[in-house]
Amino acid sequence: MTGTRSTPAGAPAAREAAPRSALPGVVLEHPAGGRAEISLHGAHVLSWTRPGGDEMLFLSRRAVFDVRSAIRGGVPVIFPQFGPGPLPKHGFARTARWTLAELRADRSAAHARLALRDDDATRAVWPHPFHLELEATLDDCLTMRLSVANPGGVPFAFTAALHTYLRVADAGRARLVGLRGVRYIDKVRGGAHAIETADAVTIAEPVDRIYLEAPRSLRLDDVAGGRAIEIVQEGFRDTVVWNPWADGVASLPDMAPDEWRAMLCVEAAAAGDPVRVAPGGTWSGTQRLRAIPTP
C-alpha cells in the first residue's frame, strides 16, 4: 500500500482517516473538487463535498454503521448480484471489509484504490475466485472505477452497480435528462418493459427502473437546489433510477420518512444482462460525477 503523501498547501491530498461514520477509511481532498470520504466497509463512498462544503451525495441520518449492515446512502458497491436472488440482496461486496491497496496524491488529483478478494465466506455463497478493486479519483470531479478480475480456471457471470445516491433539494422537482427513447424495465410495475417518452425523467411516484443500453452521459437538474450534475458512465451498459417516494420509504427502517425528497439514485449498472468474465480476464466500469452550471 502507498500511504499518505505530503503535499503543499492547496494541493491534492490523500490520507487515512475515520470518516463521519467512525469506520476506518480514507479522505481525499482537492482544491477544485472538494473532499471525498470513503469507508473500508463496503468500499463505500460516504460523502463528496464541493469546495465550500456543498454536499453532492445523500446519506441517510438513520444510516447504520455497524460493520455488518449495508449503509443507506453514498455509493454502495453492488456485486455479484443486483437486486434479490439466491445471494443476499445486492450481493456481499457492500457489506464486506475491503483493504486499502493504494493511497496517493499527485499534482492533479487524489486517488484511493480499495481491494476485495474471495475468501471462505464469499465462496460459501458464490463459489468463484475473484478480485475486485474500486478506485476513486478526486480532481474537479469524482470518478469511481470498479474492476472485476477472474483469477480462476472457469468463467463466471455477475451483475453489478455503483448504487449512487445523489442529493437533491426536492426530488419532486428534480429532472434527469438524457433517457428519452431508452427501453426500461419498470420494477414498480412488475418488470413490465416500456420506452421512455419524456424529455426528462421526473419523480411523482415510486420509481424503480433499469434503463437498458443507456446513453453514456446524463444530466441531473436539481431545480430546487439551483445546481446540476453531469453523470458519465463507461463499461456499465445500464442505468438504474430509483426513488422510493413516500409510499416506499415507510418500509426502510434506515431512512427517515421525509428523506425520499432529498435523494435520487442514478446508478451505473450492469443489471439487464449478466457480465461474463473468462478465466484470467478483467472487466471494468466507471461512473464520473461533475457539478456543472445549471442549464
**Helix tally?**
2
- Taking strands numbered 1, 2, ... along the chain, how are they ordered across the largest sheet? 7-8-9-10-22-19-18-13-16
The helix-and-strand class reads mainly beta
Terminal residue distance: 42 Å
Level of helix content?
under 10%
Output the radius of gyration. Answer: 18 Å
Gross geometry: globular
> What sequence of helices (H) and strands (E) makes up the elements?
EEEEEEEEHEEEEEEEEEEEEHEE
Overall pLDDT, averaged?
Answer: 95
The main pleated sheet reads as: 9 strands, antiparallel
Protein topology:
Blueprint: E1 13-17, E2 25-30, E3 34-39, E4 44-50, E5 54-55, E6 77-78, E7 99-105, E8 110-117, H1 120-125, E9 131-138, E10 142-149, E11 156-162, E12 165-167, E13 175-177, E14 183-186, E15 192-195, E16 200-201, E17 207-211, E18 217-222, E19 227-234, E20 238-243, H2 245-249, E21 263-277, E22 282-292
Antiparallel strand pairs: 1-2, 2-3, 3-4, 4-5, 6-11, 7-8, 8-9, 9-10, 10-22, 11-21, 12-21, 13-16, 13-18, 14-15, 14-17, 17-20, 18-19, 19-22, 20-21
Structure description:
With 295 residues, the chain is mainly beta. 4% of the residues lie in helices and 45% in strands. The chain has two helices and 22 strands. The protein has helices spanning 120-125, 245-249, and strands at 13-17, 25-30, 34-39, 44-50, 54-55, 77-78, 99-105, 110-117, 131-138, 142-149, 156-162, 165-167, 175-177, 183-186, 192-195, 200-201, 207-211, 217-222, 227-234, 238-243, 263-277, 282-292. The radius of gyration is 18 Å and the shape is globular. Mean pLDDT is 95; it is low at 1-8.
